[in-house]
Amino acid sequence: MNKVVSGADAALADIYDNATIMLGGFGLCGIPETSINALVRKGVTGLTCISNNAGVDNFGLGLLLHTRQIRKMMSSYVGENAEFERQLLQGELEVDLIPQGTLATRIQMAGMGIPAFFTPAGYGTEIAEGKEVRVFDGKHYLMELALHADFAIVKAWKGDRYGNLVFRKTTRNFSSAMARAGNVTIAEVEEIVEPGQLDPDQIHVPGIYVHRIFSGGPYEKRIEKRTTRLSKAE
């Protein structure tokens, strides 16, 4: 039952070339940055990465883009990464843009064992090409398939040696669903606590979904896009 490993390199040791990987977080909030750095060191290539966004240049998934380790990105928002844009326009990167609600639900359905669902998002656009369409109450819906991954990598606030996870505020976005949708789920946490120290009512991901856990950090509190204005005195 002790799922604690020594660090990121040990936790990610069996990730292989051409694997499909989910990476949690929202923007730069709650991304598994220690694990991403380990993937860069490991040098695996041909990765399909499922993440809400593609990080920024030189941080987060931007690091894997610069080292050309990502073959395909499946995301809903990618507007803050110049290298991503360059690779996309040059035909060097395969991209599947997915409406954010659809992306989140496809991941949730995988964790729940539901193979497909219907949504109106994307009907009448390029997103609908090749997908089954049905009409419910006079409205058109696309059939979307659940989204699975070989590995799911998430960052949590706290965890115990059984793999139970607690996220903090926005960092819970996508991560709790992804942890249920990977064949192998790896969690890096800010703090590993003793069993019994986590309130059962506050656990966001039960340890049954988590295969490995390690203590990451130190973590950098980055601001994805800083907006400032002059003070009145100026």
UniProtKB/TrEMBL annotation:
Check the record and name the SMART domains matching this protein.
Answer: CoA_trans
**SUPFAM superfamilies on file:** NagB/RpiA/CoA transferase-like
Task: Give the top-rank taxon of the lineage listed in the UniProt record for this protein.
Answer: Bacteria
The protein's matches in Gene3D superfamilies, at most eight in alphabetical order, are given as: Glutaconate Coenzyme A-transferase
Q: Which UniProt keywords apply?
A: Transferase
MF terms from GO for this chain are: succinyl-CoA:3-oxo-acid CoA-transferase activity
Which PANTHER family does the record match to this protein? KETOACID-COENZYME A TRANSFERASE, SUCCINYL-COA:3-KETOACID-COENZYME A TRANSFERASE
Q: What is this protein called?
A: Succinyl-CoA--3-oxoacid CoA-transferase subunit A
**Which species is this record about?**
Flavihumibacter petaseus NBRC 106054
